[in-house]
Write a structure and sequence with these properties.
With 326 residues, this protein is α+β, with helices and mostly antiparallel strands. The protein is built from eleven helices and ten strands. The chain has two domains: 5-160, no CATH class; 174-322, no CATH class. Strands 2-3-1-6-7-8 form a six-stranded antiparallel β-sheet. Strands 4-5 form a two-stranded antiparallel sheet. Strands 9-10 form a two-stranded antiparallel sheet. The longest helix has 33 residues, at 293-325. The protein is elongated and about 90 Å long. The protein starts with a strand and ends with a helix.
Length: 326
């Protein structure tokens, strides 16, 4: 949709002492900025401008002044284009140079400033947009956190999907202890006990194991393949959040299977938890248990027994190989 109205506000102000003349020149052309006692405030009610038009003499002066001040990424970006930007008009007048910042957005400049600033830890950016028609589908927003380590960004749709995932993961106010068929994996917003955190660590270890096995082209359950696809799409932070959603399901399953697991001599971390993770299915919203509770428990126990047989067979094969070599 064309002609979107875009507003951007940032906080806190950037100390003027941390900004090179070249960075200030470019930022004040991309955004509407104001100088305060606290520093340069970046904002716009019109949206960022690209390409920007800068007088070539001002650009050259800012570049020459900034080069010895700081090892700025913007210096390198402009330096690689300076020859194309320097020619003037035949009569010697100072004319404007158009600088395309498509490959070097203004957020990169702020990241560079924060990375070398002795006092500025982060800059937050809030952006929202809509069409003058005020049509509901035209509304959108995003937030960014710019630190010395990187630029973290999420759109309003990203956040809403994350909230939907969290909402699906919440337990109802009163829920029976029995597993509910077809219900999404549940996790409450609360403090976790030491035992629950140990369970979470075991689950994360199993997820890492299955991800590595899949990347090494090993044989894995179909659910693990979908887990890996979601991992690639959403990143590590989102996957760690899913771990806590699996904890209640794992503990409920362990309560139901504890007698059989103890009789078989199966371990919680090495046998049971990998079986639970391997038995889960995954959607864009995270992990869930497919089918009836009894079917899930049967799948877990079958996986536990199968994993023990595979380990025993591998150990026997290694022992026979050592015997033949000796």
């Amino acid at each position: 949709m064309n002609n979107l109205e875009t507003r951007i506000y940032t906080y806190p102000p950037i100390p003027l002492a941390d900004i090179t003349p070249l960075e200030k020149l470019v930022l004040t052309h991309v955004l509407e900025c104001s100088e305060t006692e606290a520093g340069l405030v970046l904002f716009t009610d019109l949206g960022p401008i690209n390409p920007i038009s800068v007088k070539r003499k001002a650009l050259l002066d800012a570049f020459r002044t900034s080069a010895p001040q700081a090892d700025s990424a913007l210096n390198a970006f402009i330096g690689g284009r300076i020859l194309a930007l320097l020619p003037t008009s035949p009569d010697g007048d100072d004319i404007a140079a158009d600088i395309d910042l498509t490959e070097f957005p203004w957020q990169f400049i702020v990241h560079d400033i924060v990375a070398r600033s002795p006092s500025l830890q982060e800059v937050t950016v809030i952006q929202w947009m809509n069409h003058p028609s005020q049509r509901p589908e035209s509304y959108g927003a995003s937030v960014s956190l710019i630190t010395g380590k990187g630029i973290h960004h999420a759109t309003s749709e990203d956040l809403l999907n994350r909230f939907r995932l969290q909402d699906r993961a919440l337990l109802p106010p009163v829920s029976p202890p029995a597993l509910m068929g077809g219900a999404p994996v549940a996790a409450t917003v609360r403090s976790f006990t030491v035992g629950e955190m140990e369970t979470a660590l075991c689950i994360w270890e199993a997820m890492l194991y299955f991800r590595g096995l899949h990347e090494d082209h090993g044989s894995v359950p179909d659910g693990v393949i979908r887990m890996s696809e979601l991992w690639d799409a959403t990143g590590w932070l989102a996957m760690r959040a899913h771990v806590l959603a699996i904890v209640p399901l794992a503990e409920q399953a362990y309560t139901a299977l504890s007698d059989a697991l103890e009789e078989g001599g199966f371990t919680f971390d090495f046998d049971f938890i990998p079986a639970v993770v391997g038995a889960l299915d995954w959607s864009e919203y995270g992990p869930y248990r497919d089918g009836e509770p009894e079917e899930f428990l049967e799948t877990v126990m079958a996986s536990v027994a199968g994993r023990r047989r595979d380990v025993a067979a591998e150990a026997l094969a290694n022992e026979n190989l050592i015997t033949r070599k000796s």
